[in-house]
């Protein structure tokens, strides 16, 4: 594989995590991202602080829901992460996916380390 092809693939994959407008919906009583995957909140994030406490390896395991524009609705906003990227928040709490959820409807991250919870409306 050439470096150019590797760059194109990397850019395409990066685009999967950051969308201009993140459509969040409710399915089965929980918030889900535009891909239908369950969203979570982190107890160490302070609602309304505009910050995410999940960085580094944490963000690898709990990928943030990224966007450049907040979803429609007064309960949604964007926070700016330490790297300058923008993450979707619900009622001031940043939203995350769980890397071990493999398909839409999975909810295996609820209760992990007693600090991760299903994002509910």
Tell me what you see in this structure.
It is globular, with a radius of gyration of 14 Å. It has helices at residues 3-15, 57-61; strands at residues 18-21, 25-27, 30-32, 40-42, 66-69, 76-80, 86-90, 93-94, 116-118. The chain starts with a helix and ends with a strand. The protein is of the alpha+beta class. The model is unreliable at 4-18 (pLDDT under 50). The strands form four sheets. It has a three-stranded antiparallel sheet, with no helix packed on it. A two-stranded parallel sheet has the order 1-5.
Which tags fit this structure?
2 helices; 121 residues; 15% helix; alpha+beta; single chain; two-stranded parallel ribbon
Short description:
With 121 residues, the chain is an alpha+beta fold. The chain has two helices and nine strands; from the N terminus they run H-E-E-E-E-H-E-E-E-E-E.
Total number of helices: 2
Quote the average pLDDT.
87
Biggest sheet features: 3 strands, antiparallel
**Ends distance:** 45 Å
* Global shape: globular
Number of strands: 9
> Which structural class matches the secondary elements?
alpha+beta
Q: Which percent range describes the beta-strand content?
A: 25-35%
Write the layout of secondary structure elements.
Elements: H1 3-15, E1 18-21, E2 25-27, E3 30-32, E4 40-42, H2 57-61, E5 66-69, E6 76-80, E7 86-90, E8 93-94, E9 116-118
Parallel strand pairs: 1-5
Antiparallel strand pairs: 2-3, 4-9, 6-7, 7-8
